[in-house]
């Protein structure tokens, strides 16, 4: 049975304080063992079972949307509350949304997320998550679902300085790790992976 939101390691006021403080000071936070392992495994199983529903990911929005294999080569499936694992994950993200709104007054309105599956050799080049001229994506989240990830597997999340090309963080996509960062501030990319890689990418949005 999937864990409920109340059983999350980071589901308490002190944890929400720590996340809010990091977003205020550095604009991002990397949380190890943030999600219960059992839930991560259930979510990865959902992603595997839904492999036939994966769609090739594109870039841009609206009329600017296109499929560009030189920029990204992952497959995605949007989360929806139709399984206990997805319900539990989305319930915790709702608690996080409310907790961050109380502390930071960000006006976070809702949350959208999708499974992202990278086959061997897949990547996502350097980019920003927020669409130009549209302030709807405020905070980005990435939750990793990969047990026993090794350095030679690569596929790290690379987070760059908003001011230049300086690499600030290299995040291994280890099981139960979550990264939260300001969507419009930090360019980032997914390095070429040498092993099939599972994650959930999501965005807290403001009103458009």
Automatic annotation (TrEMBL):
Top-level lineage group: Bacteria
Keyword terms: Dioxygenase, Iron, Metal-binding, Oxidoreductase, Vitamin C
A GO BP entry: cellular response to hypoxia
Recorded GO MF terms: ferrous iron binding; L-ascorbic acid binding; peptidyl-proline dioxygenase activity
Cofactor dependency: L-ascorbate
Pfam families recorded: 2OG-FeII_Oxy_3 (PF13640)
Domain Fe2OG dioxygenase: 104-206
Keyword set includes Oxidoreductase: yes
PANTHER family documented for this protein: EGL NINE HOMOLOG-RELATED, HIF PROLYL HYDROXYLASE, ISOFORM C
Record protein name field: Proline hydroxylase
């Amino acid at each position: 049975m999937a864990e409920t939101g109340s059983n999350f390691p980071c589901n308490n006021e002190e944890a929400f304080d720590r996340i809010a403080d990091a977003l205020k000071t550095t604009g991002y936070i990397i949380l190890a063992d943030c999600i219960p392992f059992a839930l991560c495994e259930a979510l990865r199983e959902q992603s595997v079972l839904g492999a036939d529903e994966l769609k090739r990911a594109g870039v841009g929005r609206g009329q600017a949307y296109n499929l560009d294999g030189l920029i990204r080569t992952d497959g995605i499936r949007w989360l929806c509350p139709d399984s206990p694992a997805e319900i539990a994950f989305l319930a915790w993200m709702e608690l996080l949304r409310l907790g961050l709104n109380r502390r930071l007054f960000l006006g976070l309105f809702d949350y959208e997320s999708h499974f992202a599956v990278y086959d061997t050799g897949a990547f996502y080049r350097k980019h920003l998550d927020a669409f130009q001229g549209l302030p709807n994506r405020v905070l980005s989240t990435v939750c990793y679902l990969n047990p026993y990830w090794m350095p030679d597997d690569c596929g790290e999340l690379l987070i760059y300085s908003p001011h230049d090309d300086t690499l600030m963080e290299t995040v291994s996509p280890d099981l139960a790790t979550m990264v939260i960062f300001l969507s419009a501030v930090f360019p980032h990319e997914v390095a070429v992976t040498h092993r099939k890689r599972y994650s959930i990418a999501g965005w807290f949005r403001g009103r458009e």
